Amino acid sequence: MDKKILLAVNGTLMRGLKLNGNMIEAGAEFVKKAKTEKYYRCWSIEDDHPAMIKTVENGAEIELEVWAVPPEGLSSILLKEPAGLCIGKVKLNDGSEVLGVLGEPWTVVGQKEITQYGGWRKYIASK
Fold first, then answer.
1. Rounded to an integer, what distance in angstroms lies between the CA atom of residue 60 and that of residue 109?
2. Which 3 state secondary structure label does DSSP give 47?
3. pLDDT of residue 1
4. CB 43 within 8 A of CB 108
5. How many C-beta atoms surround the C-beta of residue 98 within 10 A?
6. Confidence of residue 82 (pLDDT cuts 50, 70, 90)
7. Mean pLDDT of the 98-106 span
8. Cα–Cα nearest to 91, from 57, 53, 43
9. What is the distance between the alpha carbons of residues 39 and 42, in angstroms, rounded to a whole number?
10. Phi/psi of residue 70, each to 5°?
């Protein structure tokens, strides 16, 4: 049996949101709610999904979920993600580091920054 990979998700892959089925289909299991360290910024991409990028200043802790994903499921999740999202390392506020969904810098150009909300759920709840 393969060991599962921890994956931090900060948008529509989270429980109850529109792409969460992609996590379930991949055999992923919810582990915990968490927050990033304070060096991340987040944007709304056409109010469809977020994109989170690590920065060296003006960041905040962003709420996310950590899931345990079978290695073979990781590629299926990534292939179904919108263009401009990728997998990279994410540092959590407890000092641990996991893989996570991040945005490529070009994705956020001209988009609405939502860092001040602290996460996608709080942003969509404010609308």
1. 19
2. coil
3. 47
4. yes
5. 17
6. very high
7. 97
8. 53
9. 10
10. -60, 145
Which residues, listed in sequence order, are joined to residue 66 by a DSSP beta bridge?
Answer: 8, 32
User: Residue 40: enclosing H or E segment and its boundaries?
Assistant: strand 40-45
Q: Name the nearest CA neighbour of 95 among 31, 36, 53, 41.
A: 36
Measuring CA to CA, which residue among 109, 106, 123, 95 is closest to residue 14?
Answer: 123
Helix, coil or strand: residue 8: strand
Computed on alpha carbons and rounded to an integer, the radius of gyration of the chain in Å comes to 13
pLDDT tens-place string over residues 54-77: 999 889 999 999 999 999 999 999
Q: What token pair was written down for 113?
A: 């920054």
* Token representation of residue 107: 């994705």
| Residues 6+ away with beta carbon under 8 Å from 96 | none
- Which two three-digit tokens encode residue 121? 């759920």
Q: Flag whether pLDDT at 2 surpasses 90.
A: no
